[in-house]
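(Protein data)
===
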Amino acid sequence: MTEEIERADNDSPWKEILEAYFPQAMHFFFPETARLINWERPHEFLDKEFQQIARDAEQGRRYADKLVKVWQIQGEEIWLLIHVEIQAKSEDNFAQRMFSYNLRIFDKFGKPAISLAILCDADPNWRPNQYSYNYPDTKLNFEFGTIKLLDYQNRWTELEASDNPFATVVMAHLKTQQTSKKPGERKTWKFSLIRRLYEQGLQEKDIRNLYRFIDWVMILPKALEAEFWQEFKQFEQERTMSYVTTGERIGYERGKQEGEQSLVLRQIKKRVGELAPEVQERIQSLSLVQLEALGEALLDFSGLEDLLSWLKSNITE
C-alpha cells in the first residue's frame, strides 16, 4: 500500500500536464523565456538528472519539479528548472531552496539553469522571487521567475477566451480553491469546465488529458461524485461521443484516494509524530470521504490521543 501511495503522489497531475503540454505552459506562464527557445527542436525531460540533485530534498512537501533541456534560437543548449509549489501555505525558506537547486545543477552538470516557479498557494502577499546575502567582500543576488495563480482571479474573461490548455488548468485550480467548503458549487464548476473542453472542439487526447487534471484536483464527496458521473455520462451520450471510459474513471478515483492518504498521513505525522503500524493501517483503510473528514478534523488535534479518539468515534471496526 505504501508503495502505491508514493506512486500516486509522484504521478502528480501537475507533472503529467506539464509533460503533455510543456511548450504551451512556457508560452502561457513565462512568455519572455519561451521566446528564447527554438520550439522546432525537441525538448527533453531530465528526470534522472533532477533526481541526482534532489535526493536529499525535503520530504513530505507537495510540489512538482521538472528539469528540461531546450535549445535557444541561437543554437545553444539551456536547461530550465520548472518548480510547481502545490503546498497550501507559504514557506519561509522557499527562495533558498530555489537557489540551492540552481546551484546543485551548476555544480554537478556545469549548466546554468533558468529557474521558474509556479505558486499555487492562496496567500496574495507571498511572492518570493530572489535569494540574496550581502557581506563586505562577498555579495549574492539570485533572482528567479515567479508567477502566482491567484493573480488570474482578476483575468477570468481572458482565461475563458484562451485556447491554451493551461487556461483550463488555472481555472480548475482557482475554482478548487474557491469551493473548498462548497461541494455543490464545486460540482457545478467541475461539470462546466469539462463541458467547456467539448465546446472548444478539442481533440480526444486533449479532452482526456485536461479531464484527468480537472477530475484529479476537483475532488468531490462520494455522493456528489456519483451524481456528477451520471450527469457527465448523459452529457456525453447526448453528443454521441465518449472520450472518458469507466475504467479510466475508476483508476483516477483510486489515484485520488491514494494521494489523499499520502497527504493526510504526512499532516498527521507533523501534528502528532510517528504512528504505530496498526494506526497507519487503519488510516490507509479509510474511504476518500473519511479521509477528507479526518483531514479537516486533525486541524484541532493536539496529540496522538485526539487521533485515536477520532478513529474510535468515526470508524466502525
